[in-house]
């Protein structure tokens, strides 16, 4: 089986771009990634594309060129981008192809996501109770977690403060202004305990990654960023996931637990070997919970982590160095690939003001989506 390398990256800035469609933002990212890799569109042997609300990714061939390329669409909730990357790497690992593409984009309307119970095999009462509104579900979930593990609301505020500070240093981020913690804590409440600064917003953006075999990567002469592991897993029995209608007394882990465990096993390393991490943070509490679910700390230790600055850019494990979803927003198809884009930037040493010091060699990304799917990637320079 061939090793897989990321040899080209491209991104359309996240946020709101009036007059530019989601497809166009994806095409922008693809062209940037092709240029970064030093190849042309006809060189691409296959593509996997992710989008939730902005059209079928394969239609971008109208703009890129009608080469007859194999192009497969992926739709998998917030893990769509990670799932596209997981699928794309298999074509190269198998030896069938030498070079291909994973691309994701979206352009969501303003306001909360409008999911319906029937789409997730849930009864109508679940929607009538308000739990299809994800702000309410995640607020309930973090309240339970905070009570169980003695985590303060101020720690949620510190996560958001870090996100906006990091986002101010990332050219592709939507929210480019730091926000003081007092303003975060005192802002209007959306769903207790979350103020408006503790949630991300649906957004727009596009990301593309060019993947290649080791032989092709060496031919291109690009920085050798190896995809050591890519996993995508669904939820086990007893997990408490978004759009879950109940909580089992006996917990059975989560989709993230499984995806993380398997990724570390494939890569042959552990959490202590990771130099930089991007973790799903659709709300401030998600980053906290995912720190533990991915094995980087024990439940409850997040209070000390945030107080001591251990997840800052200069800390022992920098987390969400470009501001994550809180600062970038969440265009579903692109969000998971943005994390990998940021990790490639960090491993290349091209992060500028947000660059992690001491030449990071390993990078981890984790994306989570409804109704309990999770994707993890581990990169190595």
UniProtKB/TrEMBL annotation:
This is Acetyl-CoA acetyltransferase. CDD domains: SCP-x_thiolase (cd00829). It comes from the Bacteria. InterPro entries: Thiolase, Thiolase-like, Thiolase_C_2, Thiolase_N. GO terms for molecular function: acetyl-CoA C-acyltransferase activity. It holds the Pfam family Thiolase_C_1. Keywords: Transferase. The keyword Metal-binding does not apply. It comes from Novosphingobium marinum. SUPFAM superfamilies: Thiolase-like. Residues 5-174 form the Thiolase N-terminal domain. Residues 254-378 form the Thiolase C-terminal domain.
């Amino acid at each position: 089986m061939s090793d897989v390398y990321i040899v080209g990256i491209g991104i359309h800035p996240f946020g709101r771009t009036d007059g530019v469609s989601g497809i166009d933002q994806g095409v922008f990212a693809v062209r940037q990634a092709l240029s970064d890799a030093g190849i042309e569109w006809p060189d691409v042997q296959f593509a996997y594309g992710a989008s939730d609300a902005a059209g079928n990714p394969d239609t971008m061939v109208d703009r890129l060129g009608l080469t007859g390329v194999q192009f497969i669409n992926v739709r998998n909730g917030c893990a769509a981008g990670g799932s596209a990357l997981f699928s794309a790497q298999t074509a190269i690992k198998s030896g069938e192809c030498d070079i291909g593409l994973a691309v994701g984009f979206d352009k969501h309307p303003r306001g909360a996501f409008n999911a319906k119970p029937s789409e997730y095999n849930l009864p109508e009462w679940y929607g009538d109770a308000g739990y299809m509104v994800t702000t309410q579900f995640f607020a309930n979930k973090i309240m339970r977690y905070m009570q169980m593990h003695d985590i303060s609301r101020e720690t949620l505020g510190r996560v958001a403060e870090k996100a906006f500070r990091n986002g101010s240093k990332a050219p592709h981020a939507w929210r480019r202004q730091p926000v003081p913690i007092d303003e975060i804590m005192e802002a209007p409440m959306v769903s207790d305990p979350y103020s408006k600064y503790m949630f991300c917003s649906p957004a727009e953006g596009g990301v593309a990654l060019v993947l290649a075999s080791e032989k092709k990567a060496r031919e291109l002469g690009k920085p050798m960023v190896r995809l050591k592991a890519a996993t995508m897993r669904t939820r086990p029995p007893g997990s408490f996931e978004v759009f879950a209608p109940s909580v089992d007394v006996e917990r059975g882990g989560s989709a993230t637990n499984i995806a993380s465990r398997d990724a570390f096993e494939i890569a042959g390393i552990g959490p202590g070997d990771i130099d930089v991490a991007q973790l799903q943070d659709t709300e401030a509490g998600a980053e906290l919970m995912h720190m533990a679910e991915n094995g980087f700390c024990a439940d409850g230790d997040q209070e000390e982590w945030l107080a001591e600055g251990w997840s800052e850019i200069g800390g022992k494990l920098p987390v969400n160095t470009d501001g994550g979803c809180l600062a970038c927003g969440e265009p579903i198809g692109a969000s998971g690939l943005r994390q990998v884009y940021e990790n490639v930037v960090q491993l290349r040493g091209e992060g500028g003001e947000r660059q992690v010091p001491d030449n990071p060699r390993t990078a981890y990304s984790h994306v989570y989506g409804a109704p309990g799917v999770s994707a993890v990637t581990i990169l190595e320079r």
